User: Fold these one by one.
Assistant:
Number 1:
Amino acid sequence: SIIYVPNTLKALHAIARYRRLQRATEVVAVTGTNGKTTTKEMIAKVLEKRFRVLKSSGNLNNHVGLPLCLSQLNGEDFAVLEMGASQVGDIRQLCEIALPGTGVLTNIGPAHLEGFGSIEQVLKTKMEILDFVDRVVLNRDDHLLREALNWKEFHGKDVLTYGLQEGADIRAENILSGPEGLSFKVHVGGKVFSLRLRVHGRFNVYNALAATGVCKLFGCLDTVAEALEGFEGVPMRLEVKHLRDVTFLSDMYNANPASMEEALKELVAMKTQRAIAVLGDMLELGAYEEKAHRDLGEMVARLPLEVFIAVGERMRAAAEVVRSTVPERDVIV
C-alpha cells in the first residue's frame, strides 16, 4: 500500500518516535567529535553478551539514518545509537525522536565548524543530550567535557567518568601497544581487570573505557574483557593492512584536526624503517580551515617521517609549512 504524507521526513521521524514510545527499550546515545562509531560498536558488542541489542548501522547517525534504525525496534533490550551533528539543534532533534536514557560523550574538538561557527558551539550542541538522559558516561580527560561537569545541567544525573588520569571513575593504566593491538589494566569500582584489544591507537583505550562505563551502569562488567577481545575494529578507522613487507594504516573515513593527530601518532609509533604520510584535505572547518592545515603541517614537520604526500588544495598549506621547516624532507603535492 502507499500512504500519502505532506512531508516524508517528518513522517519518518513520527514513525520512529512512535515505535520507540511503544517499547521499553533502554536507549544509549553516543555523541562527540571523534570515536562515535567505534564506541557505539564496542558498547553493542559488550551488551550483546547478555542482552538483545539493536545498534545503528555503520555511521547512520543523522536525521535520516537514526530514525531508519529506530524504526527497526522489535523487542530488543537495548538500542545503541550514534548521534552526529553539524549545527546547533541537531542533537536535540535526534533525542526528541530516540528519547535516550543514557548518554555517552566521547570528546569535543574542531569539526563541522562551517555549521557550528566555533568549538564552543560544538560543545553546546553535544550537551543538548543532557536535557533527555538520566545517566551520563563522559571522557574526563577531555578538558572541555571536564570543565562542563560543573554545569547545572549535570545536577541530579548519574555520571560516570572515564580516562587515563587520576580522578576518573573508570581508569586505564599500564597501556602497551604491539603488533597485535593494545593491552592495559582497567580500574573500576574498586576492581581491576586486564583488557586486550585487537585494534590500534591510544584513542581506542578511551573507546573501550566508555563501553566499560555503560556496562558498569547496567551490571554487566563481567562481559567486557571477553567481548572486546573479539572486537576487530571498524572499516576505514585506523585499519592496519599488510602487503608484502609494507604496513598500511588506513584511516580514510573522515578527517578533522584531532583525528589526523591521532593517526599520525600511531603511524610514528608503528614505524620500523620508513614512514610515509599521505594526507588529504580536512573539510567543513570554516574560517579555521587554513590554520588547521598549517598547524597540521607543523606537526608533520616535527615527526620523524621520511615522506609527506599532500593531497588536495587545502593540504597545500600543510605542505608549505613542512617545506619551509624541514627543507630536506621529501614533500609531494
Note: The longest strand covers residues 170-178.
Number 2:
Amino acid sequence: MMFKIPVENIIERIKQEKGLSDTEINQMIEKKIEQLSGLVSREGAAHIVANELGVKLFEPVEGRIQIKNVLVGMRKVEVAGKVLQLGTVREFETPDGKQGKVGSLMIGDESDVIRVVLWGSIADKLNEISEGDLIKIENGYVRERNGRKEIHLSDKGNIIINPSDIEIGEVKLPTPEQKKIIELNEGDLNVEIVGTIIQVFDPTFYEVCPVCGKRIKKVEENEGEGFKCNKHGLFKEPSFAYVLNIFVDDGSDIIRCVLFRENATALIGEDVMSYKDGSFDDVKMRLIGTQVKLRGRVVKNLLFDRLEFIVNEVEKKDLSTAEESIAEEEKVE
C-alpha cells in the first residue's frame, strides 16, 4: 500500500538524506512530470524521485507514534493524546436497513492535532470521556476527509482512558482557518467565521451530572428515583447546563451557531442561568445586529440536513462601535 505523504515532507526527507536544495529537488520533480507527459501527480513524481535517489520514505513502525507521523492509508495505528473537543453520538440507518452509530472527538499531542471518528458500539465510549482526559487509541486506521487526516476506529479498535503510562506535554492548537460561511465543510475542526447575529433563540436548559457535568436523564421507575450518570451513579437533584442557538450572516450565507455554557455566557456578558425562569426577550433584542468572531467546528444536523457551527470561542463587537470606527476613519480621510 502506498501511504499518502505530503510533497513537502518528501522534499524534506530527500534534503536530509541527500543534501540537495529545495530548488534542485523541485526541478527533479518537474522534470519527472514532464518525462511522464503529465500523467502523474506532483506527489507521485516526488515518490518516484525519492525512490530513484534511494530515499526510503516510510519505515515500518510498531507501537505508539506521534500524531504528526500519522499517514493516510495506515492501519493498526496506535496514538495517544489529550482530548480537546468532544462530539456527540448519533445513530443512523444504512441503505440496507441496518442501524449504526458514529461519534467523533479531537485529540492532540505535542506534535499535532487530529480528528478521531468512532464507529459502532465503540462510539458509546464518548459518554465516558471528558475534555482534558488523556486517551490511547489502538488498532485505528487512517483516512482522508476534505483534505485532512482522520483516525477511524471500529469495534475492532480500542480506547484506553487516562492510561497510567501516558504523559502528554503542551498541546498547541493550530491557528484557526478563516472561512466564509459558504466555504464551510462538514468536519472542519478549527475554523473562524466573522458575521452579524440576525436571530437569537431562547436558551435551552438541561440536566447534567453535578460531578462531571455530562448530560443525564431521569431514571426509569424500576431503577430508583432521580437522575443517573453513567460514570457517577444516581443523583436526586441534578445540576443544570444550557445551550444557546443563534443565526449568523456573513454576506456569503447564513448558519446556525450553537453555544454551550461558558460560550453562551461570554456572548451575552452575564450568567445565562439567571434567565432559567425569566424572559430572555431583552437579551435577544440586544444581541441582534451584533458583529461576532466565532471559532469552532462544523457538524451536520441530519434531522434538518444542514451544517451547523459548534462554537468554542467567542469575540463580539457591538455594531454601533464598528460604525463609530468607520466614521472616525472617514473623518481622517
Note: DSSP finds six helices and 17 strands in the chain.
